[in-house]
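Thought: the user asked what Glycosyl transferase family 1 looks like in 3D. I have the sequence; next I should run the structure tool and report back without guessing.
Action: structure_tool
Action Input:
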Amino acid sequence: MKLLFCCEFYYPSVGGVQEVMRQIAERMVKNGHEVTIATSQLNNRNFDSHNGVRIVEFAVTGNLTRGLEGEIERYQSFLANFNADAIMIKAAQQWTFDASWPVLDLIKARKVFIPCGFSGLYEPEYAQYFCNLPNILRKFDHLIFYAERYRDIDFVKNHGMQHFSIVPNGACEEEFSAIKDSSFRERHGIPESSFLLLTVGSMTGMKGHREVAEAVARLNSKGRHVTLILNGNRLPSISDIRVNLATPSKCSGIENLLIRFRHLGKRTSKLAGKACRAFRVYQKEGWKGVWQRIATLLGQKKKTLDYWINDINHQVRNKKILQLDLPRTELIQAYKASDLFVFASNIEYSPLVLFESTAAGLPFLSVPVGNAEEIAEWTGGGCICPALKDERGYTRVDPELLSKMILELMDHPEDLRKLGENGHAAWRERFNWLTIAKDYEEILSGVVSR
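Observation:
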């Protein structure tokens, strides 16, 4: 088959979307298919193919709600005229999907879409977007979901659509077959006797690094030494993405004015969204609820991730935090050297890191974010720490409760061992990319249809 995959970011950019698309694309190439990726231009990408996958870059940013900017027409023409057997787009609310809307009817190839969670479903500024979305989704031949129960699949079911499959995420059997390196702890100054906690996620402020650090600060380790590795990469910024956009200084007077109005409109939309959320809290909880939210936000600003890292590293003898951005091979060794993976992200769909934890035989403790509860059920490899969701669907864990659950698992090493073994066995049987790629191949070829 000749395949076109579209995603906002791709290798060498790091993240869940990038990893899933890379794994599927490279395995399709190994199976004899021709794969092209349409994605954003990056300053640190100086090649047009990787592991047999052709990469075509577009200088585009944004989405339909924030505004699309750059080579939109070039991308739409490329999409409409690409001679493919199947086209697969991953994730809503980003340009490779949103810019495709006007040309979907012109595409003759089989069209597959992975919604990827609908993170903005409860955001007021995205109300019109999701009002228009059902008609767009019906133009695709097949939809792929990662979870049996989540906001995106519920949205589709509520609109009477049934042309979908559930294909779980996983972890790479080639990467995690690496032998455990017993010198990992020594390399990073971690005592062999230290109870090693690991959390992994991009440094966006939404991946739970602060919450886990605070939980460790509150942890009564009963004299045992505890080390926490906070691993995370910086997301691409606008300076990393090559987009040839007109700036106000280069525009005519009218164009300059339009750009300023557009940016003003975006700011106004954000303010309106915050006002709507505050009003909903007021309706449900009164002024007390509003002031509690404000107090919480002020408290979070005072006690940042840096605060907790400094608090532990400079004032506590038997605890240590390492903030790292490890190369991939070394990160896999971090999984294998750790005692417990802790995940407190605020927003997810189907977190790859939980599958990677099971692949390493590492038990996990996660908040109920995305389909983490399903992953715990499917793999038997982890536990769930209860946490509430706010009015926008963001998971907010109590660090004190998370701390107590970490201690409970520390006190029961046999339970940790069993969780690790169960998770690893489930990963080997079902949740590896070798197995998962076969499902994608069937869907892309049309073996699995409406």
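Thought: the tool returned a structure. Summarizing for the user.
Final Answer: Structure for Glycosyl transferase family 1 predicted. The chain has two domains: 2-170+432-445, 175-237+295-429. Residues 253-302 form the longest helix (50 residues).
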